[in-house]
Every structure is written in C-alpha cells, then in structure tokens.
C-alpha cells in the first residue's frame, strides 16, 4: 500500500512538473523570434575581388512593446540586413540599437509595428539564480523555431573587473542544449523570468558538448538598457604576441578590423575591413583591413586598455572629435573624425 501511494505521489509530482514546463513554454514562446541576417563582404578569390553575402540565423526575444528585441552580438554586429520572424510567422525588418561583443549581447528594434500586439518577456534578477536551479531555453537550433531544451545551472562565472571596478561579463553554465541558431534565445528560471541570453560561441566547438553558456540578464540590462553600449558595426580580433609580430604591428598589440557594417559608427568613421581569409594559429582571420593601435591616447595593447578605450568611445556625443591611430597598408596614420 505504501509503495502504491509513493508511486502515485511521484507520478503526481512528475505530471505537475510537466504541466508547469508546458504552461511556461506556451506563454513565453509567443515572445521568442527567429532572426535572419545578411552580411556583405569583399574577398579575394583567384586573385579577383568578389562581393559575397553571408546568411546568418539565430534567436531573440521581445522585451518591450516598442519592438525591442534582445539577442546576441555575433549575429547582428556586422549585419547589413535583419529580418525578425515572429512565432505567428509575421516578418518585420529590424535595425541594431546597441551592441557589446565582449559579452555577446545586442539590442535590436523592429522598423515597423507588428500587426498584432506583442508578447513581452520579463527580465529577472540573474543574481538570484543558483547552481542546481532548473532552467529552460527556447530558441531555433539550425533554424527550427520554438525548440525547447531543459536543464540545470551547472555554474556561474564572473570576469574579474579590469578597469575602474567594472564587470563586463557574467556567464551562466547549464546542461540545457544550445546549438547554432539557439544563440540569442532566452534562458528562463522556473518563474518564467529571463535570467540569461544563450550564446553558442562561448563553446570551444561552437556547438553543444553537454555544456551551454548564457550571458546573464543583469549584465545585458546594464550594458544595453542602462549604458546603451554603442554599435560600432565592427568585427575584430585582438592581435598580440607572435601574431602581432607576424603582421608587423609596431607595438605589443592591436585590433584587427575584419568587417565593418554599412551605416555603423565604424563605417561613419571611415574604418576599413579586410578581404583575405586565412588561418593563423588555428584561428581564422580576415586580413587586409585596418589595425587599430590607439584610441585617443590609449594604446590597444591589453584587455584593460581595450575596456578603457571602449568607455572612452561610450562617452562621445554627436559633434565630438575622436582621434585614433591605425596601421593601414603598412603605414601608420593618425586620423581625427567628428562623431556623426
């Protein structure tokens, strides 16, 4: 008799849990979107310069009735064209408002209102999330919309402050699956609040290996909703050590500009991206573009100075003068530009 009661109680708990997950999913899924992007780039193939387009896709979720959508920076940072597909199939073009690639978070906004009312998700307090808590993620792995994965928080990590006590990265590790296309999707607690933004690029293989990673909602709020992190439109790599020497960087480090999106701040300041893909030390780079050496008087030689330069840019207002030093086609140039 006791065993029978135990089994009934267990089944009741399991049934109740399943119902809760399905209810939370049904309510949240209406606010999760598929994001498709187009990126243009010029590459040398067979000695000829050719223009090509790269199609990308990922996930995002609505956080305001104005059509603001949180997603990942690597998806939209250099995008020329962004289309948002809602759960009901309606598609609307969008633009980038703010982006912070170091934490892989971005905020985009639809260019026109949706024909039906938007479902908005609530950002929870990620500081309250603990290792062992159950979470679920909604995304579009490999373009499959409205996919659900469930798991537990395996750990939380915070990057040590490098400049003025500022923390620029907080990560939640989970065993909930995150694959290409899931990145940008919301990670929920069991109250249905968003506590993280999924990012597959934090995985070494850029795919699921039993561990998934998400930037915390609190960091996303701080960088995008409070500080309004500027959208530079630049895809870049930090060069240091042997790589800096190989590419004749005249200091300990520099920022290789690989792509620049049209109409972005980087484009308006005249920065030039690369055109030749190559692999150096097991990592792919696009060479031929500018190598940034200094922003104002800050040499871009280490991570602390990179963050200092970022906040220097963050302080700029339209009409301000910005000065930077770069290596362009083997020559050092000092450039001054008015911020548009």
Q: How are the secondary structure elements laid out?
A:
Layout: H1 2-29, E1 32-45, E2 48-62, E3 68-71, H2 73-76, E4 81-85, E5 91-100, E6 105-110, E7 134-139, E8 147-158, E9 170-174, E10 186-188, E11 194-198, E12 212-216, H3 217-226, E13 234-240, H4 241-246, E14 253-260, H5 265-268, E15 276-280, E16 283-287, E17 291-295, E18 298-299, H6 303-314, E19 321-328, E20 331-338
Antiparallel strand pairs: 1-2, 1-4, 2-3, 3-6, 4-5, 5-6, 7-8, 7-10, 8-9, 9-12, 10-11, 11-12, 13-14, 14-17, 15-16, 17-18, 17-19, 19-20
Would you mind describing this structure in some detail?
The structure is a single chain. Residues 5-18 and 204-208 have low confidence and may be disordered. It contains 6 helices and 20 strands. The strands form 4 sheets. The protein has a 6-stranded antiparallel barrel with strand order 1-2-3-6-5-4. Helices cover 19% and strands 41% of the residues. The radius of gyration is 22 Å and the shape is globular. Among the domains are: 126-225, Thrombin, subunit H, CATH 2.40.10.10; 234-338, PDZ domain (Pdz3 Domain), CATH 2.30.42.10. The chain has 340 residues and is of the alpha+beta class. Strand 19 (321-328) and strand 20 (331-338) form a beta hairpin. It comes from Gaetbulibacter aquiaggeris. InterPro entries: Chloro_Bact_Ser_Proteases, PDZ_sf, Peptidase_S1_PA, Peptidase_S1C. This is Trypsin-like peptidase domain-containing protein. Pfam families: Trypsin_2 (PF13365). Keywords: Hydrolase, Protease.
């Amino acid at each position: 008799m006791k065993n029978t009661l135990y089994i009934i109680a267990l089944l009741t708990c399991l049934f109740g849990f399943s119902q809760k997950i399905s209810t939370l999913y049904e309510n949240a899924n209406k606010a999760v979107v598929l994001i498709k992007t187009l990126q243009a780039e010029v590459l040398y193939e067979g000695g000829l310069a050719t223009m090509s387009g790269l199609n990308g896709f990922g996930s995002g979720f609505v956080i305001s009735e104005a059509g603001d959508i949180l997603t990942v920076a690597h998806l939209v940072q250099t995008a020329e064209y962004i289309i948002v597909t809602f759960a009901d199939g309606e598609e609307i073009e969008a633009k980038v408002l703010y982006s912070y690639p170091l934490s892989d978070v971005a905020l985009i906004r639809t260019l026109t209102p949706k024909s039906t009312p938007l479902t908005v998700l609530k950002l929870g307090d990620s500081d309250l999330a603990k290792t062992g808590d159950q979470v679920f993620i909604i995304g579009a792995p490999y373009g499959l919309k409205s996919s659900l994965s469930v798991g537990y928080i395996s750990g939380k990590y915070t990057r040590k402050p490098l400049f003025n006590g500022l923390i620029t990265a907080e990560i939640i590790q989970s065993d909930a699956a995150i694959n290409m296309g899931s990145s940008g999707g919301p990670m929920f607690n069991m109250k249905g609040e968003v506590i993280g933004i999924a990012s597959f690029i934090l995985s070494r293989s850029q795919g699921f290996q039993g561990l998934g990673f998400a930037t915390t909602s609190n960091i996303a709020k701080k960088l995008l909703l409070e500080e309004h992190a500027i959208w530079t439109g630049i895809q870049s790599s930090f060069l240091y050590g042997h790589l800096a020497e190989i590419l004749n960087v005249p200091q300990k480090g520099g920022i290789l500009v690989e792509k620049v999106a049209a109409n972005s701040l980087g484009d308006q300041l005249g920065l030039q991206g690369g055109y030749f893909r190559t692999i150096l030390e097991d990592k792919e780079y696009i060479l031929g573009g500018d190598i940034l050496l200094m922003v104002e008087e800050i040499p871009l030689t280490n991570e602390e100075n990179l963050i200092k330069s970022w906040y220097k840019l963050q302080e700029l207002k339209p009409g301000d003068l910005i000065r930077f030093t770069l290596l362009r086609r083997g020559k050092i140039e000092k450039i001054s530009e008015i911020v548009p």
